[in-house]
Design goal:
By secondary structure, this protein is mostly beta strands. 14% of the residues lie in helices and 40% in strands.
């Protein structure tokens, strides 16, 4: 405590002595003694006061029967004299005294700051001194410390990641992590939660499904709560699946073939024709690309009018800095008959089937993919476990074969029956 405050306390003590002498002289002149009950007393309950940062507040002090005694306010933690009687001693412009009829001696603090937090004493310079204390608690809404918290992150699929969020405030804030899209937070494969409590969020072997924005929310009961948005980007090479690997069409017919690809960063997507040349939009072909999400793309190729040279194997290609993938769709010709009810004999077995699909030759759609079908990962299952184009083709081919065999078998069986009857 510096000399200035020492002088103030001495002055307060001297005032107390002078006041006691005056009361003693008055009692001698009246021929009566001063009773303890006749001294000043501080009345009312002193409660702790809680105030948000930046607000104004009042610390009350009511004194009865003050007589010639003096009232002072002291900040106990720093041993700072704030007021003596009607005089404001501190140089803090935010502190003033609300005085009324020699009974009310309320301390007024405006624009309260954190350094104002602590104990305050209202005292009367009697002997012994009479005082009451109040605790001023300054509450501070939460604030997120950006320099100590995670920003947007970019990682490779399969890596681990930890997001950090540091917050300050009074009382100490709690932190909760949630996904911005309200989906569950995937901590690791097979383990999901609605939210994570704590300063850090750790996710193991991150997949593309965990890509998105995460919110760090800090709260301590003092409004408003605050949040920080962290975007997690997961990079991976292109992957592709083809819903239908075999497409039959007639001459001068329109046809649409399609592929689905997933990649991040976004891939460059295009189609190639049976000659291996990139297909550009024109009167014959119309490539269409639809973005289903930040990393999913639906590729379509619309063939407006098929000619003989348009049949063959088409490739859908996706490339990004991490890799490349492609899928193949075989477009074959289907002959159109004027009389569709004409029975098929032995010489008609190949009609309606792709060329080269005979015994000893490659069959597109079997377990082994066609040559040149892919240069990257290709998923034949499709979304939500749908059948692949290969499976669909095998089912179609099997059905055609059954129909053909039955169509041939019926006359043979009929002839055998006639021979038996003869």
């Amino acid at each position: 405590m510096d000399g200035r405050y020492t002088v103030l306390f001495v002055a307060l003590a001297l005032m107390s002595l002078e006041t006691m002498k005056a009361l003693t002289l008055r009692s001698e002149n009246t021929g009566s003694d001063v009773e303890v009950g006749g001294l000043p007393r501080i009345v009312g309950d002193f409660h702790n006061v809680t105030v948000p940062l930046g607000r104004d507040t009042i610390l009350p002090c009511t004194v009865e029967n003050l007589q010639g005694f003096k009232v002072a306010w002291v900040q106990v933690d720093t041993q700072t004299v704030l007021t003596i009687h009607t005089h404001v001693i501190t140089r803090n412009p935010r502190i003033s005294l609300l005085h009324n009829d020699n009974r009310s001696w309320h301390l007024y603090l405006s624009n309260v700051r954190e350094k104002d937090r602590g104990w305050y004493m209202c005292q009367v310079n009697t002997d012994p001194m009479r005082d009451r204390q109040s605790y001023l608690d300054v509450v501070v809404p939460p604030d997120i410390i950006d320099r100590e918290s995670s920003g947007d992150l970019v990682i490779r699929e399969g890596d681990d990641v930890t997001l950090t969020c540091r917050a300050r405030g009074h009382p100490t804030p709690g932190v909760v992590w949630r996904r911005e899209d309200s989906q569950d937070v995937v901590l690791e494969e097979g383990r999901t939660v609605g939210e994570v409590v704590g300063d850090t969020l750790t996710m193991k072997k991150v997949s593309r499904l965990q890509m998105g924005s995460y919110l760090c929310i800090a709260h301590n009961g003092v409004p408003p709560s605050v949040s920080k948005r962290t975007h997690l980007t997961v990079q991976f090479p292109p992957m592709m699946w083809v819903p239908q690997q075999l497409e039959g069409a007639q001459l001068e017919q329109q046809l649409i073939i399609e592929c689905h690809t997933e990649a991040f960063p976004r891939s460059i997507n295009y189609w190639t024709n049976p000659s291996g040349e990139m297909i550009v939009p024109g009167p014959q072909f119309e490539p269409v690309t639809t973005e289903d999400s930040s990393y999913k793309v639906h590729m379509k190729l619309r063939m407006l009018l098929l000619h003989h040279h348009d049949f063959g194997r088409y490739h859908c290609v996706a490339k990004n800095p991490l890799g490349e993938a492609n899928g193949a769709v075989l477009v074959y010709a289907v002959e159109k008959y004027e009389n569709s009810s004409r029975p098929k004999g032995i010489n008609n077995l190949r009609e309606g089937l792709p060329q080269g699909n005979i015994e000893g030759e490659e069959t597109v759609g079997q377990d082994a993919p066609p040559e040149g079908r892919q240069s990257g990962p290709v998923d034949h299952r499709g979304p939500a476990g749908q059948e692949s184009g290969a499976m669909a083709h095998r089912s179609t081919t099997s059905t055609q074969m059954v129909v053909i065999v039955l169509g041939i078998g019926i006359p043979i069986l009929g002839r055998a029956s006639c021979l038996h009857m003869t």
